[in-house]
UniProtKB/TrEMBL annotation:
InterPro entries tied to this protein: AB_hydrolase_fold, Dienelactn_hydro, Dienelactone_hydrolase-like
Dienelactone hydrolase domain ranges (all copies): 16-231
Entries under Pfam families matching the protein: DLH
Protein's recorded name: Carboxymethylenebutenolidase
Coiled-coil segments: none
GO-annotated molecular function: hydrolase activity
Length: 233
């Protein structure tokens, strides 16, 4: 079952919506799906639906609500891609993390004592998933092609729960030096696992559109499913 839910901010100064996909039976855990720069579009909703089919309560908060609530953009349409870049430039990432934490608290409260919550993010969401791992008590975090993680390595010692990162080797937003810095900074971290994808570019695991690379997307998603099964139950 799918619907839209409303979540209050941590500061109590407003609320925001989130797409919600509920499994047929009792959820075994919850997962917060963190959007790309294109909003909670059809691809992100499909990610939630797939997680619900696997038995998780999945929600995707609208992190751009302070800028343009409910926006959905298509990366394959240039004006919409350009608009997404504009929104990214205006986006307050610290407030985004606070909204993700509010989402974590909301679903954890709903599921009750002992419930585990994970996050999975894509592009901007991949970066935010790493930040969430360092700044909140989330139980497990997955980031796909997160941008600028090499600049966040100073926060790595705050990571207390498992993190999985999917890194396409030909990511035109994350160059080879940045990828090397990620490995140098994180390969010996006991909570972090990095998988590299030779020949793949940014966005390879999108659900729809020109960026998808089906074989690698399926492999990454299988690894994510195994990761969440191990760490969320």
């Amino acid at each position: 079952m799918t619907n839209t839910t409303t979540i209050p901010t941590l500061a109590g100064d407003g609320d925001f919506t989130a797409y919600r996909a509920t499994p047929a039976g009792t959820p075994k855990a919850a997962i917060v799906v963190i959007q790309e720069i294109f909003g909670v579009n059809a691809g992100i909703r499909r990610k939630c639906d797939t997680l619900a089919e696997a038995g998780y309560l999945a929600i995707a908060p609208d992190l751009f609500w302070r800028l343009e609530p409910g926006i959905e953009l298509d990366p394959d349409i240039k004006p919409e891609f350009d608009r997404a870049l504009e929104l990214m430039g205006q986006f307050d990432q610290d407030k985004g993390i606070a909204d993700i934490e509010a989402s974590i608290r909301a679903v954890r409260s709903e599921l009750g004592d002992g419930a585990k919550v994970g996050v999975v993010g894509y592009c901007l969401g991949g970066r935010l998933a790493f930040m969430t791992a360092a700044r909140t008590d989330v139980d497990a975090s997955v980031g796909y092609y997160g941008v600028g993680i090499d600049g966040l390595l100073g926060e790595k010692n705050a990571i207390a729960h498992p993190v999985l990162l999917h890194v396409p080797e030909e990511d035109h937003f994350v160059d080879k030096d940045a990828q090397a810095a990620m490995h140098a900074g994180l390969d010996d971290h006991p909570k972090v696992t990095i998988y590299d994808y030779a020949g793949e570019d940014h966005g390879f695991a999108t659900e729809f559109g020109e960026r998808r690379s089906d074989t690698s997307a399926k492999l990454a998603d299988e690894r994510t499913a195994e990761f969440f099964a191990e760490h969320l139950g």
